[in-house]
Design brief:
This protein has 205 residues and is an alpha+beta fold. It is 33% helix and 42% strand. The protein contains three helices and nine strands.
Amino acid sequence: MVDIRKVGDHENVNGVNLSLEIETRRNTPNSKIFTISFKNKERKAAHWHKLSLILAIIFNILALIYVRISVNTLLVIIIVLSFLLFFWITYSVQSESIIVIPTVGIQSTTKYVFGQTDVFVPWSNIDDIVINEVIKLNRVLYYLTLLVKSGTNQSNQHSDGIKLMPLFKYTKPRLVMLEIIYSEFQTLLMGSQRDGVQSGSGDVE
């Protein structure tokens, strides 16, 4: 059974509208998928930004031709600008999501215009999840951060250290949206502990 729940739209820290979708799978194993994506109207507006960038490139090329630079220099400039434009469009983030499967692990996925990247963290390496406050210039930003055990001593099964893994670092949602995800995640975390699966141990006691 799959239950898809859409949470109200909110702006991110840069004023861009985001939508949060929570998908609950009640089959075996139980899991939840949290997806934050840019709204369609914002994506349409982004096409105008791309068009403006292309027009600016064409204008600069025409200006360079007008001042009569060498053909080789012009070719180098065109190639460099083309690569910059290609990487800017290719690595434009469309959405971010995390799949939470208790006792199995968490997978963080970032979708680009072409392709995606996935990062998987086993459940035994997860220590906790927190909302981290960061001061950047004159703004206070909030990040949903996963506390991951960086190493385990095989003799006593204790972690050698904790590393921070920020989630949704490209969509940059505001605190109100992060609190919803945090609450749902903590429910799954405490539920697995009640069932006898200790987070970070990987063993059922």
